[in-house]
Write a structure and sequence with these properties.
By secondary structure, the protein is mainly α. It contains 20 helices and no strands.
């Protein structure tokens, strides 16, 4: 990478790096808009795609969240395959591939026929679409994470890392905002009939925009360029696991608490409020949107803070927060508008201490040669097991009549990661990328 120029933006980012941030961030916005639109709209389309085999209205919703979890289980495969592709052929090529996949998956969701029209074929088509999206998102995190952190000048990796979740949150905001708008302007019957399809069609179009913008990016992996010139040997598929098993295991420990907290607080909490305290659907989507704006603003601020104080203090703050707070916070939920808003905002502050630096911490674990695959597989596998199943587990606890067990489940996972943060993790903020 070229040396940092003198001119900088207000956030301290050299202006020559802005194109890199834009290429990664805008494509990432599209990727995660498509991914999260599913969660926000699940309460509306579940009755269209899944048959109500009983009088229990939660059965279709459970089906939709089961498909949501299935999509997550493609993410480790995407992280491995696309990560290995990024290590061999470059981050830019990998990011181009992932955004095309996401557009195809989003279009397929938007065109999924109803159960009444085609029967069991409807959930099969939806599942196929989520498998495609899961493969794409797993690969996207591996490629975009390495691209962002490798683009950062020394002393700014925490700040650049934060744009992973700035762009992710912008995607969520677009999905949540459009869902909230449609829920406001359309009557419930229209929303359940055709309104839920609109965001997915929009997502397919946005994928083309992201594809065009990513073509302007510069490659960040000198190793991949050397491989293409025949001057370096291609890394093996599981080379990262053979030579850096401790780093791979560390990513699992670091991520367990972060992923369940993230998917609960940023996507599932509005639905959790609906099924536990009968919170209004439209109001919960509005509150989710407000909270996401707050969350997005926090990311670069906390990323810059980590460049000063280090990664460990930030992660320990997050871990202790989610060890202690889930039970009392979720216990405060009522059907009052302010209760859900307060609970979400408090959780976002602690969650930001993890999300703002997750990309930097992961990238600092591996050398360039195997960085994308080394991050992509263990991270995506952990997210699949714990993050992707969070909505399903929360809904299943409610179905079993024990919704209060879910926050205890979150705290138990937070305990595991907090032990890693305090006793195992070493500070890496001042170390050069390997």
């Amino acid at each position: 990478m070229a040396t940092s120029p003198v001119t900088e933006s207000p956030l301290g980012i050299p202006k020559s790096r802005s194109r890199q941030l834009m290429a990664a961030s805008i494509g990432n916005v599209v990727e995660w808009y498509d991914w999260y639109a599913y969660t926000f709209l699940a309460p509306y389309f579940s009755v269209q795609i899944f048959s109500e085999i009983s009088d229990n209205s939660l059965v279709p919703l459970l089906g939709s969240f089961a498909v949501f979890a299935v999509g997550f289980f493609m993410r480790p495969l995407g992280g491995l395959l696309v990560g290995a592709f990024a290590d061999r052929y470059g981050r830019k090529s990998a990011m181009t591939f992932t955004i095309v996949l996401m557009g195809v998956g989003s279009l397929l969701v938007g065109l999924t026929p109803t159960y009444a029209a085609v029967g069991i074929l409807a959930p099969i088509i939806l599942t196929l679409a989520r498998l495609i999206q899961g493969l794409s998102v797993g690969g996207e995190f591996a490629a975009a994470t390495t691209f962002l952190v490798e683009s950062a000048p020394q002393g700014r990796r925490g700040l650049f890392s934060s744009f992973q979740y700035v762009s992710t949150t912008v995607g969520q905001l677009l999905a949540s905002g459009l869902a909230a708008l449609l829920a406001t302007v359309l009557i419930k019957a229209d929303m359940e009939s055709y309104g839920w399809r609109i965001p997915f069609i929009v997502g397919a179009v946005l994928s083309l925009v992201g594809l065009w913008i990513r073509k302007s990016a510069d490659e960040t992996s000198a190793v991949a360029e050397e491989i293409q010139r025949g001057r370096a040997e291609r890394p093996k598929m599981f080379e990262f696991l053979k030579h850096y098993p401790k780093s791979a295991l560390m990513i699992v420990g670091i991520t367990i608490a972060g992923t369940v907290a993230y998917y609960t607080w940023t996507t599932f909490l509005p639905t959790y409020a609906q099924i536990t305290v009968n919170f209004d659907k439209a109001d919960s989507l509005q509150i989710g949107t407000i909270s996401l704006v707050f969350f997005m603003i926090l990311q670069p601020l906390l990323g810059m803070l980590s460049d000063r104080v280090g990664r460990k203090p930030m992660l320990i703050t997050f871990g202790l927060g989610f060890l202690i707070l889930p039970v009392p916070l979720l216990g405060l939920l009522t059907d009052a508008y302010g209760s859900l808003l307060i609970v979400q905002l408090i959780g976002m502050v602690f969650l930001g201490c993890f999300t703002s630096i997750s990309a930097a911490v992961n990238a600092e674990m591996f050398p360039t040669r195997v960085r994308a695959a080394g991050i992509g597989f263990p991270y995506s596998a952990t997210v699949a097991i714990f993050g992707g199943t969070a909505p399903l587990i929360g809904t299943a606890f409610r179905e079993a009549g024990n919704p209060g067990l879910f926050p205890w489940y979150m705290s138990a996972l937070a305990l595991i990661s907090t032990v890693v943060y305090i006793f195992v993790l070493r500070e890496t903020k001042d170390q050069p990328l390997r």
